[in-house]
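Justification of resources, computational component.

The compute hours requested in this renewal are based largely on the per-chain cost of generating structure records like the one below. Each record pairs the submitted sequence with a full structure-token output. That output is archived, and it is also reused by downstream analysis tasks.
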Amino acid sequence: MTREARWKVVIVDDHERSRAALRAAIWAAGGEVSGEAMRAGDALDLVKRARPDVAVFAVGLPDGDGIDTAAAVIAEAGCPAVLFTSHTDPTLTERAREAGVMAYLLKPLRPAELAPALDLAVARFREAQSLKRTLEDRKVIERAKGRLMARHALTEEQAFQRLRRAAMDSRRPMVEIAKAVLVSDTVASGSTT
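The structure output for this chain reads:
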């Protein structure tokens, strides 16, 4: 019987000892390594191909900066990133925060710190993605309310109630109804914006 992995992890680090320590700690904590890269240039393709739950990046890579690479992976592959470094200076930490890095592990690795860091990174990333989707959905609903208000001379409350009633009647999320309103308005006007 094979076990279900706690997380699938990609490791991006050019030092074999660091990768070996991470591999051992990931396995011991119930995870699985789904890929490894030693260069920044290989990280994004690897993450897109392996589709891990989280990626761990060394800061210094032979062909680039691990923080910049992590930022690209976060943005383009939608994968949470954890830094693995011996550096603790505040400038580095601030850069990591701005890049969207979710956790920080210090070298040499203490295996007991790995699981909480990866669990926290995955949970925080999912939470951030959920909040982002909610905000985007609200923007769509607000735009649809505005179109209904303009098209039918409704108050904001009336437009909201109309969207809500259509969602309930069709048993679909309100954001889907709002998108349909915006699409129908675009088709009716012949506009593409």
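Residues 8-109 form a domain with the Rossmann fold fold (CATH 3.40.50.2300). The beta strands are 8-12, 32-37, 54-58, 60-61, 64-65, 81-85, 103-106.
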